[in-house]
Amino acid sequence: MHHQAVLGPKFLYALFNPRDEMHAVSRAFMTFIRDGELPYRRLILNDHIVDEAATRLKKQASIRHAVTFLETIEESTLYQLEPVPGDVFEAGTGRFREWTDLDASCTDFVVASHMADLDIEYLLTYDQHYEAFDITTVPYLSQ
Q: pLDDT (tens digit, 0 to 9) for every residue of the chain, 143 residues total?
């Protein structure tokens, strides 16, 4: 069975930043996907994810890493950019305003709402708080 998965900003940051402590894990995970050893065949991004990952790469790694990231997602058929509809954005930002006790970014809330709208269960991320949204996060990391 093949699945869709959303790629989270922290996963992408680690994938495109060789100095990140999770870089090797992210690279290995993507190698397994490309080689067909994992069931994810459609890797979804949205503009909020791209913005957060590119900005973090530019500010915390280098502009070179940010540009490589942007060029890769533009040229590769592996990544699919899905726009966030206005009502889904509003649902995400509404939840962000209401859930004040969850340490998650506005982007995280929009991603969770977008995943629900697209009926996607899997998110590649290192953020543990996505479990509060009833999302299956991979790669699994024990706390």
A: 678 999 999 999 999 999 999 999 999 999 999 999 999 989 999 999 999 999 999 999 999 999 999 999 999 999 999 999 999 999 999 999 999 888 889 999 999 999 999 999 999 999 888 888 989 999 866 55
Alpha-carbon span 136 to 124, nearest angstrom: 9
Query: Are the beta carbons of 130 and 56 closer than 8 angstroms?
Result: no
Distances from the Cα of 24 to the Cα of 11, 48, 60, 102, 137, angstroms: 11, 24, 18, 29, 18
Alpha carbons 41 and 36: distance in angstroms, whole number: 8
Q: CA-to-CA distance for 14 and 124, rounded, in angstroms?
A: 11
In this prediction the pTM is: 0.92
